[in-house]
């Protein structure tokens, strides 16, 4: 149960005075529906209202806070003219200007003869010094609050800073003092304040530096959020481990048959990954391992050999893919290997229906089917296994932690191996998986030299065409990638067709064209012609990013490379360098380059390492954009900025481990404070894993 002290924070913002349903709706759009959402809605700017000149010294265009006497209200003769309130100090007269004014309201807040504090942007109109619609009007008692640095919040249409600012202030008044959950020494070392004070400070930036993720208050809040995330993951993991695993150690007879039948030798990385996995499977604890490697690094064979280990022990193993198509591709890749071992593989996707599905389910439940490949159809309620020992999940960021665990729950303490094709930066991996064990396929399969990447301006197109001609004459195959144009397939296709037309003038029949607008059969024909060698130069859009496998292709030209993201460039470049011949990638850009684009191209030139590229992509773009977090199942953070707070994440990870090592059920004083932290960041589900409530 959520601790009582947090109840008010999870109440809707309408419980704040001055916030009705209409304002609440706009606040919901900007920040969220509850009071706690306003806590996490941190300012992104400041207005400095400390400048307090005499009226005569006020400069136009500058925000000023002035203390003045209200002299006289002047109603306009013509309703289209503004209402004016003349004020003065010893130095001069200040006109406050109001369009569509409500005179009774203005008489109330600006009574003649009284002293008032007004703040806004100064204008000179004719000979008058004026402020149109002052941002603030207050009494002398409010001077301190008004003549200060005011936080500026991200807004949405229909929500003014004044209204949101007031709501945030009201929300902050409800923030309770909470017992400290951060280790005292750690807190002191960073000079961080208690949670309540840090929250207040984050909402009261004294200067621009206070808005930076490196400010003490923001670091503290980010650490809180990361610690909640890491602690929750550690609890899930500890719970999985609590269910005793089983030792699985096959005799290798099936695996030997397959490795002998392979037309290649396994790479060192593959051998190492297989050893790691075999050791995990042999151990009593449950395996929870991530297998990462670029497209083409050879994950499938690693997964399949591990599955055979389970089969050698008389148990079952499944491989789950995110889509029907990928499941079928996996099956096609695996079937020849399975044939070598003399085992069959069942397929279960959404497309298997009726009798066929019934038979499959019977075989899985009875144990006649030892291996299965499929989609999430594999973990529907009516799917039962005779003895599932290993679940391999080819995830591509599309499954959540929940689904992973559901599949694992179908087995008797089944081991779990998760495969990802896009390398996940270490920082992101930690937030999504916690301290999961990890194997990386770093080496390219034998004899594949790295791609030589060069960057040049589009102005040198003629040189590029000449170089391509030389490559083609020498028997090379070339991809020519045309860029995305405003996310429109039609425009992409047009750009590709135009380039195709130009290149056809030079290369004639040797040029092919492939883009998303072509009919399925025409696409297949274009790919076939390129693969078979009747076409040497394939002009294409990013459709080649997925699925094309032509090992003879050794050159890739990417036009307007500055328009592509780093990971996308890497995926594209992965289409070449798949054979044993040296490959070249030419990145053509249109000047001038933005700072970020220049950075991206430089990294592409420097490295072929997908892991390094993923890290740099995170640094250059931020986590959200990198993976499109919303669809990806990756956690989103309100306070932590993974690019800026990577060190805090690592510290939170270490801390979560230490905490659970000492106080596995969070029953000490600090443990209880940590429970509150978990609730504060809505990791309620993780608290359920604790043994005592
Ligand atoms: P991934 O799943 O990591 O994208 P795959 O498992 O599909 O990669 O492997 C890509 C290609 O490389 C396949 O054709 C596979 O047979 C081949 N391959 C795998 N391992 C090796 C190796 N050690 N040496 C040569 N080729 C390999
Ligand atoms: Mg694969």
Which properties best describe this structure?
seven-stranded parallel β-sheet, globular, six-stranded parallel β-sheet, binds adenosine-5'-diphosphate, 21 strands, alpha/beta, binds magnesium ion, 693 residues
Tell me about this structure.
This protein has 693 residues and is of the alpha/beta class. It folds into four domains: 4-46 and 155-211, no CATH class; 50-147, OB fold (Dihydrolipoamide Acetyltransferase, E2P) (Beta Barrel); 253-441, Rossmann fold; 452-607, Rossmann fold (3-Layer(aba) Sandwich). Helices cover 41% and strands 17% of the residues. The chain is built from 26 helices and 21 strands. The strands form four sheets. A seven-stranded parallel sheet has the order 11-12-10-13-14-9-15, sandwiched between helices. Strands 16-21-20-17-19-18 form a six-stranded parallel sheet, sandwiched between helices. A five-stranded mixed beta barrel has the order 2-3-4-6-5. A hairpin with a 2-residue loop joins strand 5 and strand 6 (128-132). The protein is globular, with a radius of gyration of 32 Å. The protein starts with 20 loop residues before the first helix and ends in a 6-residue tail after the last helix. Adenosine-5'-diphosphate binds next to helix 11.
Instruction: From the alpha carbons, calculate the radius of gyration and give it in angstroms.
Output: 32 Å
Structural class: alpha/beta
What is the CATH third-level topology name of the largest domain?
Rossmann fold
**What number is the mean pLDDT?**
88
Runs with pLDDT <50, length 5+?
623-633
Shape: globular
């Amino acid at each position: 149960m959520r601790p009582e002290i947090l109840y008010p924070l999870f109440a809707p913002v309408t419980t704040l005075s001055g916030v009705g349903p209409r304002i609440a709706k706009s606040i919901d759009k900007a920040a969220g529906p509850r009071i706690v959402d306003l806590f996490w809605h941190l300012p992104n700017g400041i207005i400095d209202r400390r400048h307090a000149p005499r009226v005569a010294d006020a400069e136009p265009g500058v925000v000023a806070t002035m203390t003045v006497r209200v002299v006289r209200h002047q109603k306009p003769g013509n309703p289209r003219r503004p209402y004016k309130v003349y004020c003065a100090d010893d130095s001069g007269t200040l006109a406050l200007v109001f369009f569509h004014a409500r005179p009774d309201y203005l008489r109330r807040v600006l009574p003649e003869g009284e002293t008032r504090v007004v703040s806004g942007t100064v204008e000179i109109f004719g000979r008058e010094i004026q402020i149109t619609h002052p941002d603030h009007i207050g009494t002398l008692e409010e001077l301190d609050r008004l003549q200060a640095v005011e936080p500026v919040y991200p807004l949405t249409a229909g929500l003014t800073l004044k209204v949101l600012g007031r709501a945030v202030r009201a929300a902050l008044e409800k923030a309770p003092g909470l017992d400290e959950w951060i280790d005292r020494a750690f807190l002191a070392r960073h000079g961080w304040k208690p949670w309540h004070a840090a929250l207040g400070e984050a909402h009261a930036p004294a200067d621009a530096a206070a808005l930076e993720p490196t400010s003490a208050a923001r670091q503290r809040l980010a650490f809180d959020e990361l610690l909640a995330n890491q602690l929750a993951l550690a609890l899930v993991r500890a719970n999985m481990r609590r269910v005793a695993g089983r030792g699985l150690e096959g005799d290798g007879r099936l695996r030997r048959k397959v490795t002998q039948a392979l037309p290649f030798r396994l790479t060192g990385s593959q051998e190492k990954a297989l050893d790691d996995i075999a050791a995990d499977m042999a151990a009593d604890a449950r395996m929870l391992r991530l297998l990462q490697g670029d497209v083409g690094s050879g994950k499938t064979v690693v997964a399949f050999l591990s599955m055979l280990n389970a089969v050698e022990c008389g148990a079952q193993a499944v491989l789950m893919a995110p889509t029907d198509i990928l499941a079928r591709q996996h099956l096609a890749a695996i079937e020849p290997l399975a044939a070598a071992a003399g085992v069959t593989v069942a397929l279960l996707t959404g497309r298997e229906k009726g009798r066929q599905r019934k038979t499959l389910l019977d075989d899985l439940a009875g144990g006649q089917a030892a291996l299965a490949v499929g989609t999430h159809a594999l973990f529907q309620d009516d799917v039962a296994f005779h003895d599932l020992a290993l679940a391999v999940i080819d995830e591509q960021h599309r499954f959540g932690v929940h689904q992973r665990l559901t599949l694992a729950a179908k087995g008797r303490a089944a081991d779990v191996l998760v495969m990802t094709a896009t390398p996940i930066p270490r920082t992101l991996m930690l937030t999504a998986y916690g301290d999961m064990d990890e194997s990386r396929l770093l080496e390219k399969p034998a004899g594949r030299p790295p791609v030589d990447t060069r960057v040049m301006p589009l102005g040198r197109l003629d040189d590029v065409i000449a170089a391509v001609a030389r490559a083609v004459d020498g028997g090379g195959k070339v991809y020519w990638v045309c860029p995305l144009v405003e996310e429109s397939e039609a425009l992409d296709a047009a750009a590709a067709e135009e380039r195709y037309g130009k290149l056809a003038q030079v290369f004639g029949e040797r040029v092919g064209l492939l883009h998303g607008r072509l009919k399925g059969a025409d696409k297949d024909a274009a790919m076939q012609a390129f693969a078979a060698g009747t076409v040497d130069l394939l002009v294409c859009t990013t459709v080649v990013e997925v699925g094309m496998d032509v090992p003879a292709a050794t050159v890739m030209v990417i036009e307007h490379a500055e328009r592509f993201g780093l990971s996308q460039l890497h995926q594209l470049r992965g289409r070449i360098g798949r054979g044993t011949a040296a490959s070249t990638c030419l990145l053509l850009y249109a000047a001038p380059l933005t700072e970020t684009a220049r950075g991206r191209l430089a990294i592409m030139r420097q490295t072929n390492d997908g892991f390094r590229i993923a890290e740099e992509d995170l640094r250059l773009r931020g986590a959200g954009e990198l993976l499109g977090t919303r669809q990806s199942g990756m956690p989103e953070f309100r306070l932590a900025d993974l690019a800026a707070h990577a060190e805090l994440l690592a510290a939170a990870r270490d801390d979560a481990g230490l905490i659970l090592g000492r106080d596995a059920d969070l029953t000490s004083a600090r443990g209880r404070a940590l429970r509150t932290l978990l609730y504060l960041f809505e990791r309620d589900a993780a608290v359920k894993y604790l043994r005592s409530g």
